[in-house]
Every structure is written in structure tokens, then in C-alpha cells.
Amino acid sequence: MRDFRAALEALASENASRRVRTVGLEELRQLCRDHGLTLPQGAKGAMEQGVVPLPFLKNLHSLSISEQNRLMSATVLLAGAGGLGGYVLELLSRFGVGRIVVADGDGFEDSNLNRQLLSTARNLGSNKARAGAERARATCPLVKVEALEFFLDASNLQGVLTGVDVVVDALGGIAPRLTLHEAAGLAGVPVVSAAVAGWTALVGSELPGQKGISSMWTDPSDKDAEHVLGSLAPAACLAAALQAAETVQYLTTGSLRLAGRMLHADLAEFHFELYDLS
């Protein structure tokens, strides 16, 4: 690693306007090849040395270098890679969250094409988590995305949650969400959750031991509102963007802005309201 650092110092260039040293993607890729590192390992090593890979340059100065470092060192469990999860994965990987574990046992169907970023006419039937990992490797190869091609449940969540800093709940249905929230609470891991139906988006967060948005879901046998109102792309995009923002805020500052609260967005009327659920 010492040789890598020395070679990186020789390659790094000064960005005068942002007052940081940077390295280009292809330069970093070749450097990693030369020193037997994966690209995510090289990106993390560069950030630790104060050299910003150019794909992360525009994150500054909304994020400091130390905050970007925290993202690179973080692990997120993304439960679901459909309407919400596909957009969340896109945003968190481009932000530079170092390790994202995305779990989904489902495959794409024709009816996903209206709103799910990861679905295409060519990958119908393909596993959603695998498709998300493949896209993330193409759009932001500086982070590590691991695909779990199965559904999360009480039998596997304890193991999956090991080493996770925060969970993003992008599931559909009520029963799987309640199982996820319970397991995360027992593991001491906060959850950033969202739900969409029609033009409506709901987003909220929960710290371990604290009830919030999950208190809205009481009966595991109930169907979610999507079955009545459908699911539209603008609501899914908005909810996912808010989940990603909340997740990044937590990983960089340790604070959940929506802990114990729920943001309700009605895009048909452009009405937004914040509720205290604690």
C-alpha cells in the first residue's frame, strides 16, 4: 500500500478552484491494476490520502473530504431493488457509499417498466438485485455493490445485518417491512423507510428502540395502497431521493432528520406535510 500511496502522490493533480488534489478514473484504474487493488479499494485509499477521485469531485463542498471518507467506509443494506430500491441504489452508489448490499429475490416483469429504473425490455425475468449490482458497477465502479438474490426474512436477516450501518427499506408489502424493522431494531441498526402509491409518497426513519413510520403498518396481512392506487414513477423517484438524502445525512453526520417523523408528499396537489409519529 505504501507503493500505491507514493504512485498516487505522483499522479495527483491540484484543482485550484476547489483547493483539492484529484485523480482521474482511468488513472486510478491503472494504478489499482499495477498494485493489485480493486478499484473500490483504490478509491478508498485515495480518499484517505486526501486525493479525491474525479467522479466524487462535484460532491464537494456540500460534503467535506472527511464526510466523503465516512461514506466510503460505510455499509448500507438496501432491502428491495424495485421501484424505490433501483433509484436509491443509483443515488447512493453515485454518492460514493463504499459498500452497498442490495437484497431482492424478485425478477422483473412487464408491469415494472413504468417506474423501475433498473428494468428494461431486455432484462425481463432477470433478478432485480443482480441487475442493480451490474448497473452500479458500470455507473460508479468506485464502490462495492453486493447482490443478494433472495428475499429477506426472519431466517436470514440476523446474518445479513452484521456490519451494516443503516438499512434502507425499499420493500413492497406490509409483512416484509415489519419483519425488517423488527430485525433491524434488535440488531441496533437504524432504518430509513418509504412507501408510494399513485401520486403519494411517504418517507420516515426509525432509530433502534424508537417507533416511527412502521407504526403506520399494523396488520401484516393488509395489502399496501399500491394495489388500490397504482404506482407512478414521480412518487417513486421523489421518495427514493429523500431516502438517499436521509441515509447520506446519517452516514456523514450521525443524525436522522426524519427519526420518529413522516414526510407525506401529495404530488397531485403539490402538498407536503410533516407528521410527528414518536
The number of strands is 11
- Which radius of gyration do the C-alpha atoms yield? 19 Å
| Biggest sheet character | 8 strands, mixed
Q: What form results from the Cα inertia axes?
A: globular
Protein name: UBA/THIF-type NAD/FAD binding protein
GO molecular function, one term: tRNA threonylcarbamoyladenosine dehydratase
GO biological process, one term: cyclic threonylcarbamoyladenosine biosynthetic process
Pfam families: ThiF
Structural features, described:
The protein is of the alpha/beta class. The chain has two domains: 59 residues; 203 residues, Rossmann fold. It is 38% helix and 20% strand. It has ten helices and eleven strands. The protein has an eight-stranded mixed sheet, with helices on both faces. It has a three-stranded mixed sheet with strand order 1-2-3. The mean pLDDT is 95.
Write a brief caption for the model.
With 278 residues, this protein is of the alpha/beta class.
List keywords for this structure.
single chain, 278 residues, alpha/beta, Rossmann fold, 2 domains, eight-stranded mixed beta sheet, three-stranded mixed beta sheet, 10 helices, globular, UBA/THIF-type NAD/FAD binding protein, ThiF/MoeB/HesA
SSE topology:
Blueprint: H1 2-11, E1 13-15, E2 20-23, H2 25-34, H3 39-48, E3 51-53, H4 65-72, E4 75-79, H5 83-95, E5 99-103, H6 128-139, E6 144-148, H7 157-160, E7 166-169, H8 175-187, E8 191-197, E9 200-206, H9 226-229, H10 233-253, E10 261-266, E11 271-276
Parallel strand pairs: 2-3, 4-5, 4-7, 5-6, 7-8
Antiparallel strand pairs: 1-2, 8-9, 9-10, 10-11
Helix pairs in contact: 1-2, 2-3, 3-4, 4-10, 5-6, 5-10
